Amino acid sequence: MSDWPERTAAAIAGSIQRAVFTEEHARAPGWLQGLDPRAKLVACLTMVLAAGFLRSLTALLALYAAVLAAAVASRTPLDLLVRRVWTGVPLFAGIVMVPSLFLGRPPYLAAHLSVPALWSAVVFVARVGTGVSAAVLLVLTTPWADLLRALHALRVPPVLVLVLSMTYRYVFLLLHALTGRLEARRSRVVGATRGAEQRAWLAGSAGALLDRSFQLGADVYAAMLARGFTGEVRTLRRFRLRGADAWAVAGAALLAAAALAAGTALP
Amino acid sequence: MGGAWRPPVVGDGCSGEVSRQLHIPDGYLSPFFSVGSGVVTVPAWSVAAARLRRSLRGRSVPMLALLSAFSFALMLVSFPVPGGTTAHAVGGTLIAIVVGPWAAVAGVSVALVIQALFFGDGGILAIPLNCLNLAVVLPLTGWAVYRLLGGARPAGRRRLWAAGVGAYAGLTVAALAVGVELGLQPALFQVAGQPVYAPYTIAQAVPAMLVAHGLGASFVEAAVTVLGLAYVERLGARSAARS
Amino acid sequence: MSGDLVFGLRGVRYRYHGRRPALDGIDLDVRRGERVALLGANGSGKSTLLKLLDGILAPAEGTMTVLGEPVRAVPSGEAAHRFHRTVGLVFQDPDVQLFSATVLDDVAFGPLQLGLPDAEVRERCDEALGRMGIARLADRAPFELSLGEKKRAAIASVLSLRPDVLLLDEPTASLDPRTRWVLVDLLRELGAGGRTVVTATHELDVVPAIAGRAVVIGEQRRVVADGPPADVLRDRELLLSANLVHERDQPL
User: Fold this and answer.
1) A96/A219 same-domain check
2) B65-100, pLDDT tens digit by residue?
3) Which band of pLDDT confidence, cut at 50, 70 and 90, is reported for residue B122?
4) How far is C-alpha C76 from the geometric centre of its chain's CA atoms?
5) Measured between beta carbons, which residues in chain B are less than 8 angstroms from residue C15?
6) Beta-carbon neighbour count of residue A16 at 10 Å?
7) Are B34 and A135 in contact (CB under 8 A)?
8) CA nearest B118 in A: which residue?
9) For residues B140 and B142, what is the distance between their CA atoms, to the nearest angstrom?
């Protein structure tokens, strides 16, 4: 039985590394980094929506190429973008599709592999990958704090934006606590362990995490009160839309429309 | 900066792979479907926000953030389940029991939004749908079963028992919902006889989800909930003193 | 008047639910412009006392006046606003104080809550960040900071409120030597210019640099000494009984 709590340690370390890298990269002097986050959010959603409706592989690839072009203009290492996107969800999407390849219609290749099913599987993976790429690029080029403030432009109430930013902030504290428990466990575990031990560890850790959450929650509330918090949320208004932002949104919208139009004609 | 984070993938194909996690990424469903589920989810968020504002006032802001962080951290821990895939606990029922059902709705939703944006894992358009399954169906079902079994004022071992069964029910019903949603795609959206989105029918998706969760993840969710609740109860006096 | 009375405490007691008292009869006067070091072992009630002085806890028994006003309950609403504009508390754990997504957001939080216009908020942030030497960290997320940077950011987040009275809970604890003394110098500057500063600490070596008066809270949770740091720190018997040093510690 594999030791999955240990893989959790790797997942946590990976998340933290990802966060640190993202914050640094989001401050680099690239094209997307200089755009208003609200504009970027709208443009990204447009791309993801368009990809969601497309059935044409050609159009999808065109959209994907646009995403890659934007990445290059933003000094994002392409190998990083490709690796981060394609080793995750789209890879899994491909695996998910495998059984369906043998359940489709004729014509067939060897071993009852259906050609139309193969084609639609490819389109499926391309759709997932394009959408995820656009989303990942958005996150890579926008500091988390700005991303959350951009949500306000989508009519998300300020209280919720505050909660989102505090949650993000404290996720790392809890992950740190979870890592501590993993290390403590590692120092006790000798040799292979049974599933029961691993599940017991998880349950105990959940309780400890919940307790720490309450403790922090109460303390942070006291700290907020001490700085004058009355329950009403106020934030600094910092964004101003400029020409470059409007062009970017318009560009994304046009691209999406063109892809959808072309998609009806092209394979 | 080490390698890209990759979600653990265990198993060797076959229908078990259909259900790796409960999060549905973009592209698996028609945008009509995923965004359309907002019709149910957005009102649920409004109700949760109103209830929280009333019950906790200013205190709700940091507490909610911490609970969301808790759910997020829990969801990061993947463990193997029958069918050769991995799953994770959500903690929604635990939050519902300890703080309240609407706190769970809000808390898990926030965690899911952060997951979607930060990891690009659950999909952005799919946020309303993922919140519907994990942040509405899961905690509300779990809490309802808990109250049904535990009575109006659950206490002692009966409380823990009810919490466990509630958590099991919550996660299993959520998994069922995901199976149905995925399974509907081929029927609803087809081009030239080929499914456009997720290709498995209800007859295929639902059993796979139920096996991985009902025979696996749901038990872990129940264990997490019961032991987490016991832990919190033991520290009850200490928590009260701190707040 | 030889300095207005900022804090006046008589017989103050505080107890957390069902435990022994955190404070058991505190008598203390602090005048404007004083720099006071509150000394006591860990768990001696220093943090509780600071929270009382900051108006986020109220005394269970005894009387307390802040700037001439008696305080019987935790102030709320408009009274709390006025209170926290004048008295600022820097918590021991900077993670509790830095709850926003970036350092700038945390420093801006206080002035924003006061309802100040954006331009003034920005000005105060620049000033506070500059004072603490962390202007370049304004857009960083807290998890990117070292402990020393977090402590400075936490102080900056209180400074932006421009309080007349500054309360600090163990500001130099757990820091490496270099960072520690950089912080001590910053604290010394903060105390110059007439601001009233009360610092709770168990680190005796920084006391002479940051305070003109040392108040010791003993294990009975009462004030057992009150005077110039040189005198107090010389009294080894007192320090031993208050658990601030041990027989096996080298003398300072």
Assistant:
1) no
2) 888 888 888 888 877 777 667 778 888 998 898 888
3) low
4) 21
5) none
6) 17
7) no
8) A139
9) 5
B242: nearest CA in chain C?
Answer: C16
Q: Distance between CA B118 and CA B69 in Å, rounded?
A: 13
Number of domains in chain A: 2
Answer yes or no: are the C-beta atoms of B205 and B198 closer than 8 Å: yes
pLDDT at B6 over 60: no
Residues A78 and A203 in one domain: no
Q: What is the pLDDT of residue B10?
A: 28
> Are the CB atoms for A206 and A33 separated by under 8 Å?
no
Q: Are residues A84 and A128 in the same domain?
A: yes
Domain limits at A45? 4-154+235-263
Same domain membership, residue A221 and residue A171: yes
Same-domain pairing of A98 and A141: yes
Together in a domain, A26 and A94:
yes
Cα separation, C98 vs C160, whole angstroms: 14
Q: From the candidates C14, C16, C17, which should be mutated to test the interface with B, based on the most B CB atoms within 10 A? A: C17
Residues on chain A touching B163 (C-beta within 8 angstroms)? none
Bigger pLDDT: B165 vs C3: B165
With a cut of 70, which residues of chain A have pLDDT below it? 1-2, 231, 237-238
Report, as an integer, the average pLDDT of C121-130.
94
Q: Do C142 and A169 form a contact (C-beta atoms < 8 A)? A: yes
From chain C, pick out residues whose CB is under 8 angstroms from the CB of B66: none
Closest in B62, B65, B241 to C19, CB measured: B241
Rounded CA-CA distance A209/B69 in Å is 10
- Same structural domain, A148 and A162: no
State the alpha helices, DSSP H only, in A141-242: 144-153, 158-188, 195-226
Handedness of CA C111, C112, C115, C116 (dihedral sign): positive
- pLDDT at residue A262 in the model: 80
ipTM: 0.80
Residue B14: phi and psi, rounded to 5, are 70, 175
Cα gap A2→A8, rounded to integer Å: 12
State which residue of chain C sits closest to B62, comparing Cα positions.
C99
Tokens, residue A79: 């190998």
Q: Is C112 in contact with A236 (Cβ distance < 8 A)?
A: yes
The residue of A25, A47, A96, A264 whose CB has the most chain B CBs within 10 angstroms, and thus the best one to mutate to test that interface, is: A96
Q: Which of residues 196-255 of A touch B (CB under 8 A)?
A: 198-200, 202-211, 213-218, 220-221, 224-225, 229-231, 233
What global pTM score does this model have? 0.79
The token pair at B179 is 């199976």
- Examine the domain organization and report whether A58 and A119 are in the same domain: yes
